[in-house]
Amino acid sequence: MDEQIAVVGNRQGLLGFEYEEQGRDCRATAYAGLPLVLEMMRALGVNRSIEEHVHTRRVRREDGFTDTELVESVVLMLAAGGECCEDIGMLSGDEALVEMLGQKLPSSPVLKQFFYRFHDDKRNEEIAKIRALNPSYVPEQTEALRGLARVNERLLAQLRAVLDAVDEDRWHRDPDDGCRFWCEVDYEPSKPYENKHSKPQRYIGIRVVPRQRELFADGSEVKYFAVVTNDWERDGLDLLRWHRGKAGTVEHVHHVLSNELGAGVLPFGRFNSNAAWYRLNVLTYNVLSAMRRLVLPKHLSRARPKKLRYRVFCIAGQIIRHARRLIVRLATKWVWAESFTLWQLRRRILCVARL
């Protein structure tokens, strides 16, 4: 390799430019759009949900990070294209990005220890004995892992309260399944940013009641679901049948989680640590979906993470401090500037936070 370089002489490559490294005085980042993900999480109240439900730690300890900061770091890493804990180094080493975020990012060993806390190592021997008899045995969730599952329950709790209040005579039995009932629901969750020309969404509630009134796994007698649509023309039952006919579209979500986020490979040798990794991938997917729905322009409303990185997150920015302000300079001839600007997206996220 050294001989080949010697033959080239002073030229670095075939094209007419040269790379030049610059020290700490270079305050620039290739991820100027990535902080919008963190702002979106906080606008949606995800940080408050983490503080309430995820209890691997309450305060900063020797590594200097809270659970909320660690979850936010993992979501940022996955949104940027990371697939394992080692990939956090690409972000934590970006001093300009860290300055934009206003908080340090953890190292790879700190992230690994965070995920290990979701698994109870004291039960390893017990689990090994059970699996020797039953290879398909799934260990019980730890309380911290249950907390991750509850992070998004605020919206679901609102919808359940509305469904509980529906009069009995408004429920229609589903002729295709005697355990299912459906009804039209007057429900409008917090929708911070709506296009002035958009139509309101239609909610159809679904109630599942076991024939023998057995309890579900969580101890409840009734399960509720909802179908959200902008189709106001079709009858409710016809709409539910059409929706069931689309069975299999959830595979598109699995495709994105596995191939465009980091759920394709489970990086740990601990069962509940891998479960936490998967759930944080799902959380990342939900945050990005909220961005597409509430913040991004229409032509990006169905963009997958790969396209979001290409068009929104991975944008070069120069960091400047002036008059006690932190300013991020972007190129005025940025290729997507005609369709949207980052400051416009931040204004929309701010609208989300105010509701």
Structure, described:
The protein is α+β, with helices and mostly antiparallel strands. It folds into two domains: 24-122 and 267-354, no CATH class; 152-233, no CATH class. Helix content is 43%, strand content 11%. The protein has 15 helices and seven strands. The protein has helices spanning 2-8, 35-43, 46-53, 67-80, 89-92, 95-101, 108-116, 124-133, 143-149, 153-164, 236-245, 250-259, 271-294, 305-313, 342-354, and strands at residues 28-29, 172-174, 177-185, 202-208, 223-229, 317-322, 325-329. The strands form two sheets. It has a four-stranded antiparallel β-sheet, sandwiched between helices. A three-stranded antiparallel β-sheet has the order 1-6-7, with helices on one face. The longest helix has 24 residues, at 271-294. The radius of gyration is 24 Å and the shape is globular. The protein starts with a helix and ends with a helix. Residues 192-196 have low confidence and may be disordered.
Which key phrases capture this entry?
3-stranded antiparallel beta sheet; globular; 2 domains; 15 helices; 355 residues; 4-stranded antiparallel beta sheet; alpha+beta
